[in-house]
Amino acid sequence: MDSNDTDTLLALVLSLLNDQIFNTDRILDALVQCDGDAVAAANMLNGKQVPLDSEVRKGKRKRIELDSWLKTARPNTVSNGNSPLPPPTATLRPISKPGSSSIRVKPTSKSESKPVDLSKVLKQPPSMKKAPIGLPPLLLSSPSLVAEYTPCTLHLSVLPPELACKLFYIMVDASRKWSRNKWWLFDRVVESPHRTSFYARKHNGVDGDETWQEAAQYWYNGRATETPETFPPEMEDACKVVEEIVNEEMNKRRRFKLEWKNVVDGEKSWRANVAASNCYEGTKESVGLHSDQLTYLGPYPTIASISLGTRRLFSLREVIPAAEEGSRKARTFNIPLPHNSLTIMHASCQEKFKHSIPPQSVIDMYRPAFSRSSETQIEPSNCRINITFRFYRPDFHPASIPRCKCGVPTILRPDMRNRSEEETDRYWWTCYAGAQNEGKGCNFWKVMDIDAEGRGKFTATI
Ligand SMILES: O=C(O)CCC(=O)C(=O)O
Ligand SMILES: [Fe+2]
């Protein structure tokens, strides 16, 4: 989970805006384009660095510097689509000094002797792209729609019904002791609008208590914690079912270069070794738009998320690469997650999409199919429990995580906006000390070099 809670970020951007009024979608767009950086998003909206699409929408198309265009214009120039200048619309060549509005250029064709007015030629250059049209949110109400539009799959009624119900009760009871994540954002402490907890799966023969302790600490945004609890037996049972489904799905999918390779008897084999659990009570509890930190997961993780209790919407929104911003807009996909469903965020989801559980104006009460015991009545609940099963990679072991100048483990993030075709090219390690240290961190920033750091190419079995 990410500390950049969207509601907080929205409030922060609003506080930094000049007098203009923007709707929430526009601010979210700016935040997504600035990868969650509130100051950069506010600057962008305040006009310090306005992207082409919003300029066009506001009718403030960037003025073309005639002078510079004329200097660079060459006969038969072909546009690559990235140039801020329009390509010549005909084989034009300037014959007089630019600078006045009545510049004339002479066509190269000898048959046409009458000069044409350059401003007319420039009026609608064909390469000047129209603003991409924003599409309304799409409700993906079936597993096939989810698979078609997103890098996720949805699986319904996955656990034996009694196990799903029992696990719901156990986690709701446990959640009374869970905490709300707290962290520093600039100069203030913010708190996530839901409760969360971190579990380690014991006896996997790989890691000791201290390892899990550090990993758990960073689930809580760097706050020191006790060694996390181990999976309760019902969570262990659920995990086994989830692993089977995940492996079946993974065997149908392509692999990514930087993905962790775990092959058992020639088959891809995914295992969970930790789980994070969240409880959302009522309509308002939520988690803002984020992508999961990759610090211990490494690139291209597969994350399997069980939903229990009240149905909530899971929202996904792509981060459009900078190079494609002029041609397409991000769309929000909303997936209703009923009780006892499994959502798998497959490899590339954290690199391409952000996800959230938005607040809702209404929710249905969940009516458990079984009572807690023979003496108790069935009681409807307004809680949703989520358990995300994750695999913390041995080649991203806590001891191997770079420390920043504050001496604190850094966090790993993908360069979402500059990814190319299928694979994200770059990940970076950044200081995260500020989340707990009154907002004060260092400016440590380092591109991950997977080979130099001795990671990857890892084939292991657990
Ligand atoms: O509750 C959910 O389904 C999502 C939780 C989540 O995004 C997270 O824990 O990182
Ligand atoms: Fe998440």
UniProtKB/TrEMBL annotation:
GO biological process: DNA alkylation repair
Pfam families the UniProt entry points to: 2OG-FeII_Oxy_2 (PF13532)
Family matches, as SUPFAM superfamilies: Clavaminate synthase-like
Sequence ranges assigned to domain Fe2OG dioxygenase in this UniProt record: 271-393
Lineage: Eukaryota, Fungi, Dikarya, Basidiomycota, Agaricomycotina
Superkingdom classification of source: Eukaryota
Annotated region (Disordered), positions in chain: 72-117
Origin species: Crucibulum laeve
Family matches, as InterPro entries: AlkB-like, AlkB-like_sf, ALKBH3, Oxoglu/Fe-dep_dioxygenase_dom
Record field: compositional bias (Polar residues): 74-83
Name of the protein this chain belongs to: Fe2OG dioxygenase domain-containing protein
GO molecular function, one term: dioxygenase activity
